[in-house]
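Regression report. Comparing outputs from two consecutive submissions.

Submission 1:
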Amino acid sequence: MVFKTEKIADYELGLLYRDRAFQKVLAPGVYRFLPGRAEIEVVKLDLRALPVRDAALAALYLTHPQVVEAHFLVADMGDGDLGIVTADGKLAGLVAPRSVAFYAKALRQVKLEVVDAATAFELPERLVGPLARLGAKDLVAVVEVVSDHVGLLYLDGVLQKQLKPGRYAFVKALHRVDVASFDLRLQTLEVTGQELLTKDRVGLRANLTAVFRIVDPLKAVALTSDLKDFLYKELQFALRQVIGTRTLEQVLGDKLGINQAIEALVLPKLGDAGLAVPSVGVKDIILPGDVRELMNRVIEAEKTAQANVIKRREETAATRSLLNTAKLMEDNPILLRLKELEALEKVSEKFGNVVVTNGVEGVLQDLVRIRPKGA
């Protein structure tokens, strides 16, 4: 007579069925069954798996739940429950709402923690790291708010709270979880290529630069959905308003006043939006080619006129100096004679030979004479 032999390993558990009806649980070991008219079947369950997945085990839980619970930790979750299973103190898995999972008790010390997923949407900090490694993205959202940032948590589209830098884990099995992150550091926004008209109808192009930072994210999201677009539009409108109330001469001559006027217009609105703007200013003002050429001609004419005024002033000063010198020579014969000798020296430098017919007296008296003879 040939016996039917079944071997159950140390890491296995056997389910004995006779004529498809459950009989008992088989512990690890060797079993022999006499052949007969009854159909013998042994289902072997691998207890190493976390969780143990087998259709026979799930069916047995429906018909003999007390048998299954004697050998397995049964995580039978309700509609609003999330199961957190640990094995030997380590996170082993998550059990979704309205599902059942089986964890063998024989090989490990397993524990089950049930979280009310409908209300307790944030999981303890101790689970954040293990959940990030587990990667159960369909049940839990693990988010990170980096340094110098702040996060806003939304649950099913409703703002819940503000998050400081760090890592968080939220239950998303029953809810939609979103986290919006905001950079709190200084940022720069460029408003470039703005075509503008001055008060005297002169067209020009201007570029504006603003340095800003977010100081109140709650105000920011309450006022606008696109913070940078809102800031860009406000700066653009303020630039147009300020340039449009000034002539070209005022625009080119008072950039500081333009910057201050723009700040006065935008700072109250940006403060209501949770923004701080430490500095804002016009970086470039670009004139069209014909206007630039005209301005160059005006500047050239102004500089030429200034040069002529300076030249006339210097000529007048030189003439006045000559007049004063002449008056001094008129009253002082010795000074007059010295001037005549200076003139003689300069004349002598320009000629190689000077011929005189009257001796030294002719040189001193007739060659160079400032005062008329006999005066």
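Submission 2:
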Amino acid sequence: MAGHAQGTEELVNIQGELLVSIGVEDLYVGDDIECSRVCAISTSYPKHTHEEYIISANLKGIENVWVDNKDYVVPAGYVTVYNPMAIQSSQFCADGVEFVSLHINPETIKKVAIDNNIAHRDSYPLLQQGALKNDKIFRAIQECYLTARSSTEYKEESILWLLATLLEEEKPVTGRKRQSVNMAINNMKDCLDRKIDLSSLASSVGLSKYHFVRVFRQEVGIAPVQYHMQLRLIEARRMIKDGIRPIDVMADLGFYDQSHFINTFRKVMAMTPDLYYRSQEIKLS
């Protein structure tokens, strides 16, 4: 079950001047994650708590937070992290603050941690709380937010990548795991005519989904299912250059949603498949 919503709360004085405001936009609510973009001016959250893990990326402005009896100043580019049931409070600056916030079901993180021998079965993993300057986590939060809102096929691996950045320090990819990544890429090349899911990719190289996403992202730079899509788009471009009509390319490569194929191709090539096809005809004429 998932949905989108937005809302704003404002307080004005008798002259009608805005005193404080807090707005929630692009709220996505799923079974394992709730994400939103929040804008706030001259307002605060009093001491409170949540049952979820809360991970936020500050995009603009300064937030002052309190957690674990410690005060933190959180400028743009910083991350805030709260464990389940942590007592916290926030104060937002007069110039305005904008941040992306993720509320993650603790059972989701606990299961990943237990399945991959990161935490004990009788407790939730404790993340480092407070304000962090960590560009990798910052980017992972933004990616998770954008993916959860717009793409069901990439949502799981974006959450797993975020959890990997939170739960473990980055380790060098060893020779054996590098071989697993290369094997996965070869397996992807053998099935360009259809979508492939994360579970199939991970099991094909003998890794859990969590470890597969972690080592693949470290080695290649993007998540595995996204990389497989790039390989399919490269093949689509090659076929169109060979004179095959886009409608036939779409069918041969298993793109059953025409709008999805067009939009995905355009993001990579900056033009639609039909326009690219016509440009090849002009080049050959």
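Expected: both submissions complete independently.
Actual: both completed, but the second showed a warning that disappeared on reload.
Relevant detail on submission 2: Residues 4-20 have pLDDT under 50 and may be disordered.
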